[in-house]
Amino acid sequence: MDLRSLSANKRRAIGGLAAVAAAITTVFLLLSPPPAEHRRRDAEPPAGPIELDLTEPQAAALKSEKVLFRDFHQEKQAVGSIDFNQNRLVSVFTPYQGRIISAALNVGDPVEKDQVLFTIDSPDLLAAESTLIAAAGSLVLQSKTLTRTKTLLKIGGISQQQADQTTAEQQSAEGALKAARDAVRMYGKSAEEIDRIVQDRLADPRLVVKSPLKGYVTARAAVPGQLAQPGVAPAPFVVADTTTMWMVANVVESDAAALQLGQEVLASVSAYPGRTFAGTITVLGPSVDPTTRRLFVRSEIADPEHLLRAGMFANFVIRTGDPISSLSVSQSAVVREGDGSMICWVTKNLRHFTRRPVTIGVRQGEFVQILSGLQAEETVVGDGAIFLSNQAAIQTSR
């Protein structure tokens, strides 16, 4: 073997040993733990509260507010629908059989109390008025007979017994006329109309059916020429008083214990955003639906302007207790972090800001209840709190 070959073999051996040494060093570095200061910086969150300092232009863009006590209502929420107040919903039937002559009102028309809804041609009314006319004529005849009898009794032309008999017949005729007038009055005729029938000796078979209350026509089945009978569905007219409406909700079973009769209810519908309708709970269902696990709740809602319509969906807020005074901030002052925690940014000079974890309660309107984490009269950032959280995230990620 010459020197040239020996030199080449040595070079290859030395290169192999260097490669093995480099591989061992790489494995050692990968398996060995990082320095203590690196481990502490990467694995542990920064110690102490997170604080930020802003420049004057940045701070000027923020809006601060005080932590104040406010009243928070104890409420439960539900979803339901609007319906007519069934206690103020009347199916108007004819009191006696007859054929409908006219019906002027339609569904949706307003109606006043005692306004005419429809008119029928009633044979029963015709018979009652005929009896009235006959009774009135009979009374006239008996009155004249009694007058003559009294004259004859004075001159001895008749006996006292005959005079008493005539008086009894006259009194019977008066009773018959009174009964006939009452019978016609039951058909809705006024005293003036009855007097006119008696005076003119003319029976009027038209029976007028009037609305028993003020409201709106919600259904109409009356058609001229149709035979109408008492209590036979469908009713010729249905009238509803819409000054109060029902709101029907199905409340979750877990809220049942907090509900009581008479509790205040506030309802809102999409047709009138920002407006609420006040009422009270009038009925609590006696059982829970076994399928939906919900409790039937009915409320009576005042609607003097007649804005609500049956069938509307509504959101209900049920007041279950007296208001609770608690610390609060605006909803914009509370920021939800990525881990689900809630924080506020507290400041004393509107330049230096400290991140403060808080526990929140209910949200009502523009405010949120603060259960812990803040003190009364502390200053927090309202509008712009999200900007501070973003700045803090950038700072801690460096």
Question: Which descriptors would you attach to this protein?
Answer:
2 domains, 35% strand, 4-stranded antiparallel β-sheet, Elongation Factor Tu (Ef-tu), domain 3, disordered N terminus, 398 residues, 6-stranded antiparallel β-barrel, alpha+beta, OB fold (Dihydrolipoamide Acetyltransferase, E2P)
Plain-language structure description:
Strand 13 and strand 14 form a beta hairpin. The strands form three sheets. The protein has a six-stranded antiparallel β-barrel with strand order 3-12-15-14-13-16. Residues 1-6 and 22-47 have low confidence and may be disordered. 31% of the residues lie in helices and 35% in strands. With 398 residues, it is α+β, with helices and mostly antiparallel strands. It has helices at 3-31, 36-43, 56-60, 123-155, 160-185, 191-200, 385-397, and strands at 51-53, 64-66, 68-84, 89-92, 98-103, 110-111, 116-121, 206-210, 215-220, 227-228, 237-240, 244-252, 264-268, 277-288, 294-302, 313-330, 335-336, 342-347, 352-364, 367-372, 379-381. Helix 4 (123-155) runs antiparallel to helix 5 (160-185). It contains seven helices and 21 strands. It folds into two domains: 51-85 and 242-398, Elongation Factor Tu (Ef-tu), domain 3, CATH 2.40.30.170; 91-239, RNA polymerase II/Efflux pump adaptor protein, barrel-sandwich hybrid domain (OB fold (Dihydrolipoamide Acetyltransferase, E2P)), CATH 2.40.50.100.
